[in-house]
């Protein structure tokens, strides 16, 4: 499902909102084999790239300063301080699906992915950082010897979401006639983003590794000009 709400460029402002609700399922990743060849139903699940919610907001705003604007519409200050435009891009996405696996050695079926037993209610604790559990590992258990668990591919809790904000501020200087020079500053800000999308290991057992290493935030600033 897709939903889009726009405010057309008027009075120096344009806003575009776009939301997508989606769900993709498959048996395996592209160009890889099925992980449970003895039971295809264990491999049928959410695609590894599935993000249920996606939201994008873009804006363009002509600052109301300079010739023909509300503030400083004439004079030397008008030419120096006018002509600036601000644009932004905000992206928010829900997390990727997770699989909780078990020891394949105990399953004793070479070439088959072993899944854990779910023995409680899956709970996202929301911990972020080294040594902090993102979700409760106590509800997953190693199945009995030579037994496949009751979980299947990508039926674990949803991974952490992703937020990013980009902004650009630029000014155009008229040189002669239709010739312009442009100066711009771009900023890229990640409010919260995992350093790796999924934990490297997420097996059930006495010492589960069910943690995410996340960056609290990162940003980048870039300036440039063109003629």
Structure description:
The chain has 2 helices and 12 strands, in the order E-E-E-E-E-H-E-H-E-E-E-E-E-E. It is mainly beta. The protein has one domain. The strands form 3 sheets. Strands 1, 2, 5, 6, 9, 10, 11 and 12 form an 8-stranded antiparallel sheet that branches. Strands 3-4 form a two-stranded antiparallel ribbon. About 9% of the residues have low confidence.
Question: Layout of SSEs?
Answer:
Blueprint: E1 2-10, E2 13-21, E3 25-26, E4 45-46, E5 53-62, H1 76-81, E6 84-93, H2 104-107, E7 117-118, E8 140-141, E9 162-176, E10 179-194, E11 214-215, E12 218-226
Antiparallel strand pairs: 1-2, 2-5, 3-4, 5-6, 6-9, 7-8, 9-10, 10-11, 10-12
The separation of the N and C termini measures 42 Å
The structure class reads mainly beta
N-to-C order of helices and strands? EEEEEHEHEEEEEE
**Low-confidence regions:** 193-201, 206-217
Task: Give the helix proportion (percent range).
Answer: under 10%
Number of strands: 12
Largest beta-sheet characterization: 8 strands, antiparallel
